Amino acid sequence: MTSNKKEKINKKEKLVGKRFGKLKVLSVYKKGKYKKCKCICDCGNTTDVYYSNLVSGRTISCGCRGGEIANRYKNIVGEIYHDLIVEEKTEKREDGLIVWKCRCLKCGKYIEVTKKQLDRGYVKDCGNHKYEDLLGQKIGELTIISFDKNREKYLCQCSCGKSTYVSRSNLISSHTLSCGHLKDNRKYKYVDGALPYLLTGKIPSNNTSGVKGVSQTKSGKWVSYITLRKKRYTLGTFKKKEDAIRARKKAEIDFFLPIIEKDQMRKQKTKHRKERV
Ligand SMILES: [Zn+2]
Ligand SMILES: [Zn+2]
Ligand SMILES: [Zn+2]
Fold first, then answer.
1. What are 48-105's pLDDT values in tens digits?
2. Which ipTM value was assigned to this complex?
3. Torsion angle of alpha carbons 86, 91, 95, 101, nearest 10°?
4. Same domain, 114 and 138
5. How far is the CA of 169 from the centre of ligand 2 (A)?
6. For the chain, what is the domain count?
7. Beta carbons of 177 and 141 less than 8 angstroms apart
8. Do 151 and 83 belong to one domain?
């Protein structure tokens, strides 16, 4: 056997079992000058197809999807799909479908796509605009400068001057609002180990007395307590509610007031500093 013949047989064997659209090749034979393939269609029919029609994608079924085929071969040059205008039919085929050269209306760049991709909206532009919607926007302290494709994150400029990379999801969810300096600020809000804003906070919803730090026990007595630096201190148990409230108010003056005053002093200082700048 000559090597040439061997090659031909190998080629034939490779074709058998191969799929073209709905057609699967059962056997390959020659008719006159042309190669033909006996195929089985997904619908169950067998059909004989010219090899060239098969590999070019012109025939993709026994004919049961004729309308669809016509649609696939429709000339769509000049048609606009979202932000793409079809400019040219290429010689390329993808899964038996024509590949069309399209120009992106946003930037003028060319891409090649099939009509299926256009019809289904899988491709709406050249693909370089996915991240553009956020560019230039301000989220919290961050101004979004550009998108880094390697990092898959946005380069952002923080109001404090630092730049930082933030993921799209963290920006959209407002999870990240600064380079981190906002979080750092919280640390400095502590005064003597306590957070002043907690001291002046609202009455918890499960409160039974209407006064913060005073609650009634099952036996009907009133307990007074105070929470500072995450620790809860009991101030006493009282028969009268007024006494429990008095104990609590005294403790607030003793423990909270110095912290609140210090915090207010500091806030005024930073305000002055800012005004001078
Ligand atoms: Zn069929
Ligand atoms: Zn584009
Ligand atoms: Zn910052």
1. 998 988 888 888 888 776 555 566 677 888 888 989 999 999 999 888 889 999 999 9
2. 0.56
3. -20
4. no
5. 23
6. 4
7. yes
8. no
